[in-house]
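Pasting as-is:
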Amino acid sequence: SQEADICLDMEYNYSVAEDFGYRLTDEYLSTGFSRITRKTFSGEIQTVASIRDSFLLQDYLGERFADENIVYFDSVDECMDAVRDGKADAVFLYTYTVQEIMKKVHPETFDSVIMGGEHVSVAMGVRSDFDPCFLTALNKTVLNVADTELDNIILDATEDYYESQSLLHFLYANPVYGII
């Protein structure tokens, strides 16, 4: 089994990182989790799509669903395809990721819900057998990204806009005009 040299989404928890053979940078992001389902989905979630090898997502889902109810995929797109095709009832992702996805998909196809009360601090994990100087350099880089720069990056990726100019998209984005 191959392990990643650098993990970009490790929980800012030294004990967990050590258990997996990583050392942590300082935290660089705090995020919550959100869920995407088909617009037509109702009932209790039985099957969940998840990204393979994501420490935070696996931990989050492992606390809520049995292993046999989680189907793993290699990408977010594959998870979304599984939800769209009915192979999974939902996909849980970081809230920022869900916001980015929802601005690109048809609003009549999917629903998203922010899972309240759960935030996690995210850090980068570097394999323990790497030169400690690399971790120090990476940590200096993380610390030099100003909060305003990070906020701007997140805002650029998640601000609400629709690329489609169809009447249906316009009415979903502006429901008041549909009443008039």
